[in-house]
Amino acid sequence: xxxxxxxxxxxxxxxxxxARGYNDYVSEFLSYGANIRGxxxxxxxxxxxxxxxxxxxxxxxxxxxxxxxxxATPYLARMQTTEDKATDRERLFCSAVxxxxxxxxxxxxALIDELTVRWPADLCAIKWGQYHxxxxxxxxxxxxxxxxxxxxxxxxxxxxGMIAFALEQNHRLREAEEEGLRAxxxxxxxxxxxxxxxHVLETEGRAKEGARWLDHCAHTWEKKGVFIRDHNWWHAAxxxxxxGQETEALxxxxxxxxxxWPEFPQEQIGAVxxxxxxxxxxxxxxxxxxxxxxxxxxxxxxxxFPFHDLHYLYALARAGNDGEAGAxxxxxxxxxxxxSGDAAFVWGxxxxxxxxxxxxxxxGDRAFAAVRLAPVLSNLHRVGGSHAQRHVFTETYEACxxxxxxxxxRL
Length: 411
Fold this sequence. Notes:
Layout: E1 3-4, E2 10-11, H1 16-31, H2 38-44, H3 50-61, H4 66-82, H5 88-101, H6 105-118, H7 123-135, H8 139-152, H9 159-169, H10 173-186, H11 191-203, H12 207-217, H13 226-242, H14 246-257, H15 265-280, H16 289-297, H17 306-318, H18 322-338, H19 341-362, H20 366-373, H21 387-400, H22 405-410
Antiparallel strand pairs: 1-2
Helix pairs in contact: 1-2, 2-3, 3-4, 3-5, 4-5, 5-6, 6-7, 7-8, 8-9, 9-10, 9-11, 10-11, 11-12, 11-13, 12-13, 13-14, 13-15, 14-15, 15-16, 15-17, 15-21, 16-17, 17-18, 17-19, 18-19, 19-20, 20-21
């Protein structure tokens, strides 16, 4: 008989000690803890547990770069050789991870959707489902999964933060703020809930409140992983921009947004995004693009996520290397031509025109950039990212057509 996890669900092929290690991973994953990589040692010691190895593979894939796909390979192999001994729930998760590894993100989401309908107690699977829904720009699925978490997890730490962000991305702002504050009551260190409330305050133009809120929460982030720590500071910088404090935002960039893990794609796109915004407001960022561009250059040809690609491409175009940016754009268009199903539309009809627009914008051709960007703005959510993250494209379009957002905010 298999041991059970913290949600009383089986973990086939694991001993009691390994199950405790798996539970530690679940806690770290849901809380964005800094010790999440401890799962790899647990998986290495449990080659017979398909579920544990599937989650180890998922963690590597969530790096969102080629290194992650390579590092996931041995865990995928172990998972695939042992999943016939797993439970139906575990096999569904393994199948989702296999689809993810094959870059069939829609299938991965559909499988996790099925799993969590049948086993809503699996909060870890719900969180992974939300991860895919977010990257696919599927706000309905993001909310559906969040609401599913509420079935079992009314008092579970970190569940309400998941629900809060899903509500915010579906424009249900009052409910989102309430859920985010409720989450922080249950677990004061719920950095994802801090993030969800920040989204509400940013959307409603409550920049002073937003800056105070994140300043109030920031002391809990130092024990978190790089992603949420960087990303919440990114939101803090956004509030400074909204308050007209560009130099304060630049200080946050220097201290918090670049240098913790430069090889990490999420740190790269966060840095690109902030430098892009700072320059849209007329700030001279000096030599700060150089190390960011060096990292973006290494992502050329990967084409895992359209949202990421648009940021890498802008960094290369902003560096003024027309050859590199042109080659990246050609490669991106090839990805679009070879995509199928829903991905063909996202890459070909949304990402490719947006990519042409930002290359044109970086080279000074604002008229062409506006022509290519205008038709895709309404579908840009399909490339992934949040409302706040995608707003840089709206700001870029406004710059192309002569709208001075900073001046408008001062009126």
